[in-house]
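hey all, quick one before standup. I had two proteins in the batch that finished overnight and I want to keep them in one place so we stop losing track of which output belongs to which input. First protein below, input sequence then structure tokens straight from the run.
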Amino acid sequence: GGGEEGMRNDMTVEIQSTLVNGNNDISNGITNNNHNSSSSNGNYPQPISPTPTVLSMSSSKATAGRGTGALNRQSCILRIPIKLHVPSQNIPVTFVVRAQLTTTDLVFTPSRLDLGPCVTTELTGSKLQIHNPSRLPQTFGFLHPPPGVSLAPGGGYGHVLPGETVEVTVSLRPPIEGPQTFVLTCHTLAGRVFEIPGSAVGVRPVVQCSHNRIVLPVTCAGDTRSYGIILRNTSEGEQAYEAKVPPNSGLVICPHVAVIPPKGSLRVLVEYSPPPEAIEAVRKKIEAAAEKEE
């Protein structure tokens, strides 16, 4: 059963008549209410033939409250005794319906996204974890994301197994400058809707880069690959810049210090030559893969 209102489970029970001649008039001991019911309060099985009747239970938080004596709080297993009365039979027929209760919640961490300053010309991302505390797998989807918001992987659609935690990257490219808020709406196939609020500050950069990602081709030891990018100054004044590269990365940026004139641009050359450390790491990786295959 589900953990919220509106989750309804049906079960068909066959009642077998053992009379060779005549019919059995059977009534059940199920009370029709907001939580459980049967398709009929009375039935007439034909001789030597089964008669199906449907038992329905709408599980909710109130279900656990009403069935305190029948609910195991540790395992969340609910056992409901059912009694069938037959006028021509002194001893009623009894059986037990067993239901496993679980929640349909999803837990989001963090509960509120704060992306901070976000450049209007680039994507700024933040991780969002989705945990499923239910005993059932759940399928989710972020429908109609706000302008400038994108989700990966799967475009914000996916599924999470019981007890599993998956991670989604929420990226924002602010459509405007200044403080702004948004709300992500997550729907599940169980009919649940979750809202995750978010905030960011759109910042328009004074110096803009023609590329925010550079992909260089495969470079052999001793070779050098280069790629040119353009820096543009959108302000009315001069803008100084300095490029810093990680140590032992094999990268060289020329010029690494310069002044960009007002409303002007500057071409910057990015060069890459594999350092000895990187070549040695690749060699060890290839040797390890070869040994694993043997």
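OK second protein, same deal, sequence then tokens:
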Amino acid sequence: MKLPNGMNTERPIIGADWSRKKGVDIYDPHTDSVANFPSFEAAAPNYKGYLLITESTAESFELQRRAVVLKAFEENNVEAWGFKTQRTAQFRMKWDILKSNESDAKTIYCIGTKTKTALSRLGPLRTEDLLREEIQETLVRDRFLFDGEPSQKLAAAVLNDAVIPREFSSILVEKEFKKKRGRVYRSSVGRILLVAKAVRDAGRGYREFRRQLGNYGNGYKSMARSEHNWHLTIYEVRRALKKAGITKTTKAVKDPKTGIEISVRVWTDEELHIKSQVQKTVVAAAKFLWQVSKEIA
């Protein structure tokens, strides 16, 4: 069987949605049903010889858990493949699918088998990441102990004399004063520079910087990822939609479990295009911060 993404397999395929609290929901197209299990280890013996598709962040919040799951898959001859987590939400929004664990399991199956989305083998995670732990402690201290003062000072030292590309100005700068009185930078900017400094001090390069910001599949606790994905990206998406005169699009649907009519978020093609462009610009802005961080003493 050849999938639209180019993969070839003779294995039966299932889709799995993992949750820290609710376990694993597995959609089996052969029975057109969803089964719930407390964990991947509990599910694996029921799907010997299968190919399992899930999100790349599955069992990544506790780093040691991924190894336990991979061992269970190996013992039961289960091939596990994953894709970027955001693909699930994008697919759900595009096709007006109401979110639930059961529907997400089916959605994950459809993404893996009906679209050209690239899949990668679900592999082991680093069980020890001393650099991430150092960065996490630095950012927590900066925000909660020093109220952001160290990161703001770092941003000013690095960027006050820098020429900030026009397309990044609104992302990085909170306020710009006249008569060369300087700038006030978004709080996330200094913290992303703290991440860059830590990565450079460790003798690592841009790829490690991106990994620490959470641009790659992981789910473990990371303040650096929050600064990049939430405080910059999500904020900029909302601002871009507002600038385009777009208000949040919703649709009334009935909850399949309760029968109660609820309002769900629906993303139009125009909104998805704006969101995609903003995400690319924020990633480019972070790369700019990495480049200027070489000036940090």
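Flagging for whoever picks this up: Residues 13-121 form a domain with the Nucleotidyltransferase; domain 5 fold (CATH 3.30.420). The chain has eleven helices and ten strands.
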